[in-house]
Amino acid sequence: MIRYIIRRLLQAIPVFIGVTLITFILFFIAPGDPARLIAGQRADAETIARIRALWGLDKPLPVQYFLFLGRLLKLDFGRSFKTNIPVIQSIGERLQATAILALFAFIISVLLGVTAGIISAVKQYSIFDYSAMVIALLGVSAPVYWIGIILLLVFGFKLGWLPLGGYITEYGIKAVILPAIALGTRPAAYFARLARSSMLEVIRQEYIITARAKGLSESKVIFKHALRNALIPVVTYAGMVVGDLLTGAVLTETIFAWPGIGRLVVQAIFDRDLPVLQGGVIVIALIYILANLLVDLSYALIDPRIRYE
Amino acid sequence: MAIDIGASFQTRKPRSLWRVAWKRLSKNKLALLGLGIVIFFVLVAIFAPYITPYPWNEVDLSRALQPPSWKHLLGTDEFGRDIFSRIIYGTRVSLQFAFFAQLISISIGTLLGLIAGFYGGWIDDLIMRVVEILFAFPFLLFVIAVVSTLGTGIQNLYLAVALIGWAGVSRIVRGQVLSLRERDFVVGAHAIGASIWRILFRHILPNALSPIIIEATLGVGGMIMLEAGLSFLGLGVQAPTPSWGSMVQAGLAYMRSCWWYPIAPGIVIMIVVFGFNLLGDGLRDALDPRLYI
């Protein structure tokens, strides 16, 4: 297992370097002179030259890239063009909010999705099964920001049960409910479809027939024998959900004024704040890589065959 | 009574993969619903100028933010433009982007997947490493990064899609090529001296088409969502051109008094993507080679 972990960690390094290279290239091809962007439009030539030298912008591109990589290793993403606050500090503050939102969304999606999927499989071709699967397909097809608007209209404006936006420091746990439901809808729909098909496959296996033949109650057959095995593909999908949650966060946070990393990135786009944008993109990609790595490792733990591939 | 087995064998119609797939698809009600939705919206996009009750850009501030009525089925926006007409025109914008973006992704992905799978070695390694790196970016985030550094506009959107959209397809095509390249008909084509491009495009590609078609259909829904999401953030199609995403964004400011304004374009996005997803799922079942045995 340790050899597998090391091998998998080593495989992730070139991917991460590739991510930094692509982000660096994007930054480099951005229109406009980065030194002027940092210094501001009114800066004189001397200031611009000083900043160019300070940031290493006067050096050849490969050198600039390695300087950039060196700074990244020290978690130095530079300072925001707009606020002059270190980018890592802004990201650190915002990351916590996104993590809270993503965690709640994840819990909601797993509870809702897996439960619906399992019931659908056990009661295959029932009205519940058909409705759950059509709702799941609609859930996959609906834009996250649009679901957010509907939730705001119903539970915020009409019923007045939940706040229209804002963060937990203002409204407590109530603030996270609507954004988490909006963000969790799509993964919930995927989980439901996946849990259903996986459960259907498992309950046709011989050991389930054996369990039934032994005279075990249906609930024992489902919960004790089938569920565990049916959940293995669901675990694999959990890694991919992180990508969905991070992407969805960009849109959900905009709708609910949630102070997370997604909103930071969107704001950075409109402020043309390239260091923040670059830092945000790299950190999100890094989280995505780590999540997939963790899923690969947990999968190897569940299924020993993978370690020996 | 003698039975002529030979004759009955000869008169049987050949069952091509596509014929069987169509037969299976036509029995799948949900897939047919999906196909119906897709055809409907394609027709709406094509005939948009003939079916819109008002021009999409006709401004009349005296009738701004009117509720739905027989005159304006979905009401009017803040400039007095007919929301129903703008949604119909938005179909054109959205589908056009989705089809072309998908065409770009599938073409690049298929070509690189064929090359990676067929040549193997360092070419395969290089292409698959790039795929792995691209997979490390959430799709929307990568496109946002490209569009926000290069500038908004449809060309940069296409460029961003061309840079990342091919990754998934190339992996699928590569997998197909790996399973096909040692098959007798490919070895045979080699033996009679067929060129590599002929082998790739005449022998391997037609046999790898099923997963490409499924991926292409399901991907159109994803591209519609992408365009709408970017337009919602203000990074996609720019005003005054109607885009469903930017209409939802514009309606957000008036959702308290005119809730139908942001809701209507969202419903259309959901129905169209739902249609493509149903059709894609149906095609996956219909084209599943395991069911031919």
Walk me through this protein's architecture.
- Chain A is mainly α and 309 residues long.
- Chain A has 14 helices and no strands.
- With 293 residues, chain B is an all-alpha fold.
- Chain B has 14 helices and no strands.
- The chains are: A mainly alpha (309), B mainly alpha (293).
- Chain A binds chain B through residues 14-16, 18-19, 22-23, 26-27, 29-31, 137-138, 140-143, 145-146, 149-150, 152-153, 157, 243-244, 246-247, 250-251, 254-255, 265-266, 269-270, 274, 277, 281, 284-285, 288-289, 292, and chain B through 129-130, 132-133, 136-142, 144-146, 148-151, 221, 225, 228-229, 232-235, 245, 248, 252, 255-256, 259, 262-263, 266, 269-271, 273-274, 277-278, 281.
Topology at a glance:
The complex is a heterodimer of chains A (309) and B (293).
Chain A: H1 2-29, H2 34-39, H3 45-54, H4 61-73, H5 87-122, H6 127-141, H7 144-158, H8 168-171, H9 174-202, H10 206-213, H11 218-230, H12 232-256, H13 261-271, H14 274-302
Helix pairs in contact in A: 1-14, 5-6, 5-9, 5-12, 5-14, 6-9, 7-9, 7-12, 9-11, 9-12, 10-11, 12-13, 12-14, 13-14
Chain B: H1 5-11, H2 17-27, H3 29-46, H4 48-51, H5 83-119, H6 121-135, H7 139-150, H8 154-164, H9 166-180, H10 184-191, H11 196-207, H12 209-233, H13 244-252, H14 260-286
Helix pairs in contact in B: 2-14, 3-5, 3-14, 5-6, 5-8, 5-9, 5-12, 6-9, 7-8, 10-11, 12-13, 12-14, 13-14
